[in-house]
Design brief:
elongated; 669 residues
């Protein structure tokens, strides 16, 4: 699985490894007296041959670090083992040990030597039985932590001439699980500049990866802005996705190369390889389909395969990942093959701009095919100046050709628009006079129609206002709004309200003395005043029944002071009636009754409807009015309970009420 996935990002890998190998070559050639640790025994002042090997044992014991330990029965092998090595195939998980013998003469005493390890894992280095360095964490110490060893060189010095034993304890269980190379390689030097050279190596990889990645990210940002400003050109969006995928790939490779800890193989496969490669294939296919394809079926197939590949790469962790490998190869083959075929067809059909686009894409794809074929056949590839130059050109040829194509297309579109604009201006000049005459006529007609519409609108508004005012005179404001909005209003239960009932005492007698008109005028004067009092204290007038007046406090909006408001309104009514008696030769006396409790309020019927209230509370309020005396306010016990803190009341005792028996009643002072 990993070999196939790594092959898919070979282009980026070789670009990085080219810069890195160049830096490593400079590093190795410029370190004085450099020696590769690969002998069973060697002198610190002689050169070391890479073909010699270490003493090795796949077991763990602290005695293996002892310089006097007898290790002749150990296996002689390389320190870096690959999948096909027989020694590698017999490895068990856990720490393994490597040993070497070094011979130092008096010239080497006191020199600071440097061991640079390559590969990753957990590692302890012992010199003559003493631990001089540890890198990473072994599994027996808790959670294993395998680090990138090359970033942490080991420094040591020999204090006396003679034979010295170098022992290395090493562990990397993750490499055994993922079938990658296991072990390490090491180089020895006595230079003081090794740390600076390692930093220079890191800086070189940073410049190459971060620099190129930033260039692709800049292209992503530019073409994303072009798409946002002109969304009809969706090819800019696909090209932006292509660039950000390559930038993400380069950034992840940089992180992997410079991380002190080993990057998880699962995260590596998913983030570093699978996701960028999938988005690169999809964006390249979508770009090609948008420009040269008529049907979107192929793009849907690529999208489905991309999703399947990503899911298989994510979930296929415990085996060799054959399914995800096949889907990845299928995705790459389809996207690359389709792109090549469509561009070649477009070039032969002389589609405008296809030659500009095709040059860069075909150059890169052909270079990739040759590169991958060479790796598959030869098994290795040595980077030289020509290959490095072609590699750089192939990397930048795709964005360069696509950017050139989009620029050419944008310029072509602008030229076409300029020509169309010139034609439009010419036609405009010829028809300008006609349009001006038509505009004048239209303006006159619009002015006339506007006046008519405004007049009609004004009349409609006036009629609507009349209807609203009439409706508000009949119904409470909230009920009227509900009726206008919904077309109906449901009756509601109100748990706490106060009902006010009034009745003129001597109305029948006075009606015999007055004429009809005078009687109605007097009633109108009183009830008009009552209406203003109700509005002032927040009561809702329900209706008048002959000379009786019915109102309620606490609906349709609930009000905790409903009883207090009702009594205050009743006192104002008493004051008005008293003043009115002084103004006319005849005078009406009034009785008022108030009771608090629950009731139901709403509209009944669809014709000549009115807002009304029902319930025992209404009947009891009527009984309070009937049991009152002229000029007095008679309240029930429930009302008295709500107003006693603000109004002075006189207890009348229990008074017999028709149909209800004796009830407690109070006069409000």
């Amino acid at each position: 699985m990993k070999r196939i996935l790594l092959l898919l990002v070979l282009l980026c890998q070789y670009f990085v490894s080219g810069a890195r190998s160049t830096a490593d070559t400079i590093f190795l050639k410029n370190i004085p007296q450099q020696k590769t640790l690969s002998r069973l025994s060697f002198s610190l002042n002689t050169s070391v041959n890479d073909s010699l090997h270490w003493k090795f044992r796949n077991a763990d014991s602290s005695v293996f670090a002892d310089p006097f330990y007898y290790d002749s029965h150990w296996t002689v092998t390389n320190s870096l083992l690959y999948t096909g090595d027989s020694t590698r195939q017999r490895l068990q998980k856990g720490p393994s040990w490597f040993r070497l013998v070094m011979i130092a003469d008096s010239n080497q005493v006191g020199f600071v030597y440097n061991l640079v390890f390559h590969n990753s894992g957990a590692l302890k280095v012992y010199l003559d039985g003493k631990c001089i360095a540890q890198r990473g964490v072994f599994s027996r110490q808790g959670k294993a932590d395998y680090q990138t060893l090359k970033l942490n060189p080991v420094f040591f010095t020999v204090t006396q001439a003679g034979v010295h034993t170098l022992a290395v304890e090493y562990e990397n269980n993750a490499a055994l699980d993922d079938m990658t190379n296991w072990g390490f390689s090491a180089a020895l030097s006595n230079t003081d500049d090794v740390v600076q050279m390692i930093k220079n190596n890191q800086i070189l990889s940073s410049v190459s990866l971060i620099g190129v990645g930033t260039l692709f990210f800049t292209l992503f940002f530019i073409h994303l802005l072009l798409f946002l400003f002109y969304r009809k050109e969706i090819s800019n969006l696909y090209f932006a996705l292509f660039n950000v995928s390559i930038a993400f790939l380069l950034y992840m490779i940089y992180y992997t190369l410079n991380s002190e800890r080993e990057v998880s193989n699962d995260a590596y496969n998913i983030l570093l390889i699978a996701l960028p490669c999938i988005t690169i294939c999809f964006s390249l296919s979508a770009f090609t389909v948008t420009l040269f394809g008529k049907k979107k079926t192929f793009l849907k197939i690529i999208l489905v395969i991309s999703i399947i590949t990503l899911l298989l790469t994510f979930f296929d962790r415990n085996d060799d990942g054959e399914l995800s490998s096949y889907t990845m190869v299928t995705l790459l083959t389809l996207s690359v093959g389709y792109t090549i075929i469509r561009i070649i067809i477009a070039i032969f059909k002389r589609v405008p701009g296809s030659l500009i686009l095709g040059f860069g894409i075909l150059f890169t794809l052909l270079f990739l095919i040759v590169l991958i074929t060479t790796v598959i056949i030869a098994g290795n590839l040595k980077l030289n100046m020509l290959l490095a130059t072609l590699l750089v050109l192939s990397i930048f040829s795709i964005p360069a050709s696509i950017s050139s194509f989009l620029a050419w297309r944008f310029a072509t579109t602008n030229r076409s628009l300029s020509k169309e604009l010139a034609n439009v201006e010419q036609l405009s000049a010829e028809k300008q006079s006609i349009l001006e005459d038509q505009n004048i006529a239209l303006e006159r007609e619009v002015a006339v129609r506007t006046r008519e519409v405004m007049q009609q609108k004004k009349e409609i508004e006036e009629e609507k206002q009349k209807a609203d005012n009439l409706l508000l005179n009949i119904l409470p404001h909230e009920v009227a709004e509900e009726l206008k909005t919904k077309g109906s209003s449901k009756a509601q239960q109100f748990d706490e309200v106060s009902v006010l009932f009034t009745d003129f005492v001597n109305f029948t007698k006075i009606s015999e003395l007055l004429g009809v008109d005078e009687l109605l005028d007097e009633l109108n004067v009183h009830f008009t005043a009552f209406d203003r009092i109700m509005e002032q204290h927040g009561l809702e007038k329900i209706k008048t029944i002959g000379d009786a007046y019915l109102a309620v406090s606490g609906l349709p909006l609930a009000n905790k002071r409903h009883a207090l408001n009702a009594v205050a309104a009743a006192r104002d009514i008493i004051d008005f009636v008293t003043q009115r008696k002084e103004q006319v030769p005849y005078g009406l006396d009034i009785r008022i009754g108030i009771h608090s409790g629950p009731l139901i309020a709403g509209i009944i019927g669809v014709k000549k409807f009115a807002y009304d209230i029902w319930g025992d509370t209404v009947n009891t309020a009527a009984r309070m009015e009937q049991s009152s005396v002229p000029g007095a306010i008679n309240v029930s016990a429930s009302t008295h309970q709500l107003i006693q803190e603000e109004f002075t009341c006189t207890y009348r005792g229990k008074i017999e009420v028709k149909g209800k028996g004796p009830l407690d009643m109070y006069f409000v002072s």
